[in-house]
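The record is given unchanged here:
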Amino acid sequence: MTDTALLLAAIKCTALDPLTTLIATYLDQPVYIIDATGTIISSSTTERPPITAAWLQADTTQGAFQAGTSDYLRRPINTFAMKTWYLFVAQSKGYPVTASQLDLAIQIINHFNDRYAANPNQSELNSLFAQLLADPQRTDITAFRPLHNQSLVAITATAMVARPNQTAFKHALQQALPTMPLTEDAQQNLVLVVPATTAQFETDALVALAEQYHYCFFISEPYTDLTKTRDFLSICRQAFKAAQKLDQLQPVNLTQAYNIYVILDHMQDLTLLRHTMCTQLLTLQHYDQQHHTALFDTLYVYLENDCRLSLTADQLHLHRNSLTKRLQRIDDLIHIDWEQPHKTFGLRLSYRIFNYLAN
């Protein structure tokens, strides 16, 4: 196959595998496109080459590797892409591949990547992410293949100072979570999506960034459909407003803690809220006012700690015996049936309604 024939045929390729097969026909050798982790992105044959980790090192200057009677030529593909890809071409000593042929193959693959964002660079991916948030149903999400069928979380990062160094913060955030799509929303918050496991393991890094650059992160509930990211980012923003209203902002926050407040914000009838709140809490509050006690707050902390005595005592700086006496006094006043889960759930929900109405 001539160079011209290859170019004409390559223009018609709309998928990577047919292009790889076409290049293999042109070179008359097996061809593989493999990323830096050893994953085969595309190949012209079902046989896997005997590639080791040493062959995938980015800093090696070696361009050919010996395996049995064959040489494997390696060339990097689109060095500005998010993930490093390499073109490997197997060749026997009797049928060598010329440097000009390899260069043409690389140019064709890079051109294909540019056209179809098969391996986009970070800037391209961020732009595509912005498109996804603007119009999720009409955005081609092929480039987000590594995020498909994963448990994902959406994250918002909101500045807590008047003039944040957003450029430096964005760069630091991209360094902490490389290859993750990142953009700004209409309110100039930074928004991104990452695998749920990544967010879990990088929480300490997010806390450090939040404190250094004076930002506040909100992390959504996990979800699996990337096209729903916009909806979960909306929950993050609403949770931020709820936490701000309650004066409970932390460097890193989970929306789960504020879901009930997001729901309450959409209720029109505040009278209904007051009537569904356990009036027993008002009994405790009135008792505290008359006797200068702290039973109302004690019950709240106890419930929030899943009724764990030691943890609650530590948090309230009380001896276990003192806490036990308080809980007994609470039970004397409002008679809580601790064996009934719906009762304690109702109390926890009532505390949230109380906090919501108080603010």
